[in-house]
Amino acid sequence: MRVAEGANVRTIAGRYELDELLGQGAFGQVWRARDRRFRQRHVAVKVLKPEHLRSARTVAYFWRECEALAALQHPNVVAASDRGPERIDDLADALARGEAPDVFLVMEYIPGGNLSRWLARHRTEGNTTDPAAVGRLFAQVCAGVAAAHALAPPAGPVIHRDLKCDNVLVFDAGDGPVARITDFGIARLGERPDTASVNAVLGTLTYMSPEQLAGDAARVGTWSDVFSLGVMLVEMLTFARNWRGTLWSLTPAAERSGVHVALIEARSDVHDAVWTVALRCLDPDPAKRFRDAGELRRALPVEWRAPGVAATLRTDTNVTARIEQSTLSQVTGSHTVSERVRASTGARVAVAGALLVAASLALALGVRRRASRDVKRVQAALVSVRPVIADAGAVLAVRCPTPERAARIRETEARERTTPAPGAEEDYRAACECGDRVACGRWGELAFKREANGTRERARPLLQRGCDANDPRACAYLGTFAFPERTPEGDARAARYFGVGCDGGVLEGCLGLDALWTRQGDARRAGEARRRACSLGHAASCQGSRRR
């Protein structure tokens, strides 16, 4: 709902002009607003409804969200920039005077909608979602939640308690969708359960863990958020939020094997490892789930598409068409490897290899009648496909790290802290192409340092993959792409990326924050960044800190 032109515009804190209602719930409203200090910048302002100003519990939850976002600085968590009043005691004083002050939280404005809208659009356009795209987006969601779970006491860990697709904002950053976690309104900060919610059922029913549904606050922990992430993962791939009309939190453990089979039947193009991860998230026993979102994120598979299977909806009705549409890149799981093999043996042999594997998969799935018609074609292809498979296997053996090569990569990383070791880039490249996203960030860092300013753009997607894996070094270097933009949005991204780097002990991240805050005239934060750079051994920063 937009504010009508010419109507009186409500202004918050004398600075934020509310111009469009984005959404509202029982306790508050979220508005798009224009920041008077930066006339071209839009922000999102969450305002507590006046009728709840005297509710101590509601105000406490609102204030907790402010504290959670203030403590979290991560590329996959919505960034907060202001709140009011400055102290919660100021609210009590104002109410005692008979005033009704605005209680608000200012966050970055993200156009594009939430994850629920993203799923609805894909369901309308193609009635399915691409497993690889879901994998990239879900990994970002896990990264944001992992940052909250990893926050040190007393502020952390932060347990969201209301993770759902509606609370994940999605926008297009140019090179793919980006996810940001929002709405920490009922989050729990620190290890002790908050007394306001003891025995209270908090969260959204469809996404609740069994311990949340039981109102057992003492048993709610990071593993409860993992359960909600499992519900979201299944929804992102099947559009279903429950199991045959029953809440996931009420699904009997005895039905788990049937659930697994049904999920495979629903999306046979999704790798079985994905469903294994999802079902572990949804285990009714908290002890059997992943401990937190960080452990879940590390367990995510590299490949999300089932090998040799084309995109499917819910049935396998045309085996021949699926076989003909398969490619060797699906067989090997590596686009780079498939290109090398096709270049050396020809497209005809590659198609024969795909035919063999896809037909075998069809037989394994039980689609025997249609697959049997292709047995002769498979047998004829077998002779020509054997050298292809051998070639692909040899290439993969060279590229993907053995334990010995993995040890060499670790040694490379240790030496590269000072000067790049011989073969470092090749080591990181090999590990990156085998799915190690942190190695992608290291590869991007070396490329960034090697390339001239005009050609550094090629390092950006590699650094983004590393930063998505919550690697502070990759994030620190990624911030240098946002810093020159000199726009409020660019500065916000630079602050997030530099902040992750500096928090992770990366000197370049702290130096980036120093330069950013100095440019903005924020002497306090610039001085803090300078002191942190000094603590990391940067002599010039130490001298600058003493002069000030």
Structural write-up:
Mean pLDDT is 76; it is low at 313-353 and 355-399. 52% of the residues lie in helices and 9% in strands. It has helices at residues 56-71, 88-96, 115-126, 131-149, 210-213, 222-238, 256-266, 272-281, 293-299, 319-325, 328-332, 335-345, 347-364, 368-372, 375-399, 403-416, 424-433, 437-450, 460-468, 472-482, 488-503, 507-519, 523-535, 539-547, and strands spanning 11-12, 16-24, 28-35, 42-48, 80-84, 104-108, 158-159, 168-172, 177-181, 188-189. The protein is globular and about 60 Å long. The strands form 3 sheets. It has a 6-stranded antiparallel beta sheet with strand order 1-2-3-4-6-5, covered by helices on one side. Strands 7-10 form a two-stranded antiparallel ribbon. The protein folds into 4 domains: 11-108, Phosphorylase Kinase, domain 1 (2-Layer Sandwich), CATH 3.30.200; 115-190 and 205-299, Transferase(Phosphotransferase) domain 1 (Transferase(Phosphotransferase), domain 1, Orthogonal Bundle); 319-388, no CATH class; 470-547, Alpha Horseshoe (Serine Threonine Protein Phosphatase 5, Tetratricopeptide repeat). Helix 17 (424-433) runs antiparallel to helix 18 (437-450) and helix 21 (488-503) packs antiparallel against helix 22 (507-519). With 548 residues, the protein is α+β, with helices and mostly antiparallel strands. 41% of the residues are buried.
